Amino acid sequence: MEGNLKTMPLVSLLEMLHSERKSGVLKIKSTPPLSLYLQAGEVVDGGILDWRGFEAIASYDIHTSEGSFSFVPGLQSGKVIMPMPTLLGEWARINDECHRFFNLIDSPSRVFESLENRGPYEVFYGGRSVRTAAKQWGVPLVIAMERVWTGLRSGELTPVNRYVWYKLRIRHPRARRKSETDEDLIKMMDGKQNLGHLVAAGIDPDRLRRYLIKGIMSGDLVFSGRGWLLRDLLWELEHRR
Fold first, then answer.
1. pLDDT number for residue 178
2. Do 176 and 200 reside in the same domain of the chain?
3. pTM of this prediction exceeds 0.90
């Protein structure tokens, strides 16, 4: 089964697969892409590339009309994430919540700082990203986003002009084949220096974002963490300020 989200919205598609108790893999071809694994009409796994689980699924725009889909039948294994009606409701709620937070937070990768090494925001003393704070707090990403949003509005947190992905070291497969290309980003992405070094060397962050998005989407750049990175880079281009 194949189609387009303009003619078959994602929610309607999932409701149909649920009512017919279908098992198989639903792939949404878009930017970012989304994969959902269904068993007897319930989602048992899914996500954006290697970023898996409900948090990854819920980061995808449930109301988008951009993209095409394909469904390949086949038995799947895994525990039901949550019943389909509940999953769709929570997915839509988290989408709505995140859009509210984006007026101050361009992505969970953004680093914020607290001047106080105490109180509710001590985790941000010295600078931390929302993603890092969510892990240290042991809470879902959307809750961490809300806490940071509240801290920004109260003046207890300050945004820092860097992102957690600046720490990543990515080696482009053609980085050392200098005879094949003279492109500066490929040469610089040799795995020896992190992405923050590229920005410090004068590479425009938005140019780097677009390059990484293109490389991840094409499959030229394959590395652990590319799923959450792709999602955050797209958010940053959409909500940067």
1. 52
2. yes
3. yes
